[in-house]
Amino acid sequence: MLRFTGVGLRYGAPARGSGPGFAGGAAPETLRDLTFTLSEGSFTWLLGPSGAGKTSVLRLMQCVLRPTRGEVEVLGVAVSRARRRDLALLRRRIGAVHQDFRLLPHLSAFDNVALPLRLAGRSESVLRAEVAELLAWVGLAGKQHALPAELSGGEQQRVAIARAVIARPALLVADEPTGNLDAAQARRLLALLIELNRIGTTVVVATHNEELLLRHPAPVLRLEAGRLVGAAGAEPRPAEAPGGEPGRDAPAPAPAGAPPDDARAPAARVSGFRHAGA
Ligand SMILES: Nc1ncnc2c1ncn2[C@@H]1O[C@H](COP(=O)(O)OP(=O)(O)OP(=O)(O)O)[C@@H](O)[C@H]1O
């Protein structure tokens, strides 16, 4: 479960509880009064104009930032009160796709994707097949040995996505994960996120890509100037389609070009699946 209670974030200020005498600073808050709960296994779109605070919300969910006010609870852990060591362990259960990819430049595509499994102590013989399968699924079978600098922006984004999902995290946060992908690749990524969610991962995706919302209607958190807009921040309907109403009651049919059922993402075919640390 993911719970924000009265959360405020002010960049440049010490996190709540990090030192005595903290008065709050003079800069305006980037995030203000965020209160919402996302249940375990949910799928949520995070929307809002540029600068609204979407990346900041995802960083709080990833536990790389602590709130300056209020409380963030991630997978049962209250982040403000958690010890550094516990936060490090918690982060291993969270997959993240960053807007700027953050691939390790000296590692090949294969080794970047393999990293979370190696950190989890998986044997080389097992991880080799899993990494190869996922890289093939995202269309990079021939690029396993390429360094990030030898890949296009879209290819780097696909490596970043594969790295985020390979360990089947309990929580996946993705920041504009289709920003560098063409329409077909974006649909394939969506299929991967849906399969991961279907086997239990809580998924939160920040996006400006309206087509994705129409294809996969799900609850929406909408931010404007650091605040949630809409009732309690959770809207049950996706953005309206031009000339149509794709709401939750009438999910959009998969348009032509969507992956067929037999093209299920690798995550869906794993039997006996358990989330990292579950
Ligand atoms: N490290 C930082 N230090 C200071 N201010 C920051 C920092 N990161 C973000 N901000 C500010 O916080 C505000 C929200 O930024 P954020 O990146 O969360 O928005 P966003 O909705 O993700 O935007 P975009 O859609 O353009 O990525 C912006 O005004 C930004 O300048």
Automatic annotation (TrEMBL):
Keywords, in A-Z order: ATP-binding, Nucleotide-binding
Keyword Transmembrane included in the entry's annotation: no
Listed GO MF terms: ATP binding
SUPFAM superfamilies tied to this protein: P-loop containing nucleoside triphosphate hydrolases
InterPro entries: AAA+_ATPase, ABC_transporter-like_ATP-bd, ABC_transporter-like_CS, ABC_transpr_LolD-like, P-loop_NTPase
Annotated ranges, domain ABC transporter: 2-250
Presence of the UniProt keyword ATP-binding in the record: yes
Protein name: ATP-binding cassette domain-containing protein
Organism name: Caldovatus aquaticus
